[in-house]
């Protein structure tokens, strides 16, 4: 079971940028995808970005496409989420999660069984 630790959250003004990090043991044989999820006040949890551990291909929710970038560094066992042009609606707890390969190889579907404790992002107007 992978242990994931997120960091990099904080407070920023509208239009600002943050980069979140998620450190964990990224075993590409056991985990097909890494994803970033978020849950804002009164909102359901939303998957906003994912990346294939094998190919590096990415997928984004419409709400963040063009503003957020997911990337991975296998040598550092780290997945990043670069967030630009932040809006107050981006205020949320952000979680990274891992999808076991036994749950399939398609990163845009569910099956992310393991996640970290989260890091909070607040965007003020």
Helix content: under 10%
Q: What's the count of strands?
A: 11
Principal-axis shape equals: globular
* Estimated share of beta-strand residues: over 45%
Could you tell me the mean pLDDT?
94
Helix-strand category = mainly beta
What is the string of helix and strand elements? EEEEEEEEEEE
Q: Please tally the helical runs, counting DSSP H or I stretches of 4 or more residues.
A: 0
Alpha-carbon distance between the termini?
39 Å
Rg result = 13 Å
Largest beta-sheet details: 7 strands, mixed
User: Which stretches are poorly predicted, pLDDT < 50 over at least 5 residues?
Assistant: none
Give a nutshell description of this structure.
Helices cover 0% and strands 49% of the residues. The model has no long low-confidence stretch (mean pLDDT 94).
What does this structure look like?
This protein has 125 residues and is mainly β. It is 0% helix and 49% strand. Strand 7 (68-73) and strand 8 form a beta hairpin. The relative contact order is 0.32.
What are the salient characteristics of this protein?
125 residues, seven-stranded mixed beta sheet, 11 strands, 49% strand, globular
Question: Which helices and strands appear, and what pairs or packs with what?
Answer:
Elements: E1 5-7, E2 10-13, E3 18-23, E4 31-39, E5 46-52, E6 58-60, E7 68-73, E8 78-83, E9 92-100, E10 114-115, E11 119-124
Parallel strand pairs: 2-11
Antiparallel strand pairs: 1-3, 3-8, 4-5, 4-9, 5-6, 7-8, 9-10, 9-11
């Amino acid at each position: 079971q992978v242990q994931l630790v997120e960091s990099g959250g904080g407070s920023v003004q509208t239009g600002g940028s943050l980069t979140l990090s998620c450190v964990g043991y990224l075993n590409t044989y056991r985990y097909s995808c890494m994803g970033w999820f978020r849950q804002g006040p009164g909102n359901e949890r939303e998957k906003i970005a994912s990346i294939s551990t094998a190919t590096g291909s990415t997928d984004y929710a419409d709400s963040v496409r063009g503003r957020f970038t997911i990337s991975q560094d296998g040598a550092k066992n780290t997945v990043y989420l670069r967030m630009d042009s932040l809006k107050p609606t981006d205020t949320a707890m952000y979680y990274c999660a891992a999808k076991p390969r036994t749950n399939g190889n398609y990163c845009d579907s569910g099956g992310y069984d393991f996640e970290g404790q989260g890091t909070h992002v607040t965007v003020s107007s």
